[in-house]
Design brief:
This protein is an alpha+beta fold. It has 3 helices and 3 strands; from the N terminus they run αββαβα.
Length: 107
């Protein structure tokens, strides 16, 4: 069982992992791109991620969720990872972090 502090630390580690996964079409990581809608960590070390793609026809629709799951699962204390894909609400450029918008020249 993880303590509240350990759950918070694990959540931060998961965010760091997500910041190292890039969308192949847009040179920004999926976290700053705004593709991660929700992230939950349980006391048992289970991680649930709700995410979207830039479009339903995204060429990495099959592989990106698997990559997210595998990379998060590689963290030591993670016991299970579930990645849920949603298109509600649909992704748009307003969901990007300020840093991502600056990097891409979107103001």
């Amino acid at each position: 069982m993880l303590t509240e502090e350990q759950m918070q630390m694990l959540g931060e580690q998961v965010v760091e992992v997500l910041r190292n996964i890039y969308d192949p079409e847009i040179p920004v990581n999926i976290y700053d791109l705004g593709l991660i809608y929700d992230l939950r960590v349980s006391e048992e070390g289970e991680v649930e991620i709700e995410m979207t793609l830039t479009s339903p026809n995204c060429p990495v629709a099959e592989t990106l969720p698997v990559e997210v799951e595998e990379q998060v699962k590689a963290l030591d204390v993670v016991t299970n990872v579930r990645v849920n894909i949603t298109f509600d609400p649909p992704w748009n450029k307003d969901m990007m972090s300020e840093e991502a918008k600056l990097e891409l020249g979107i103001f």
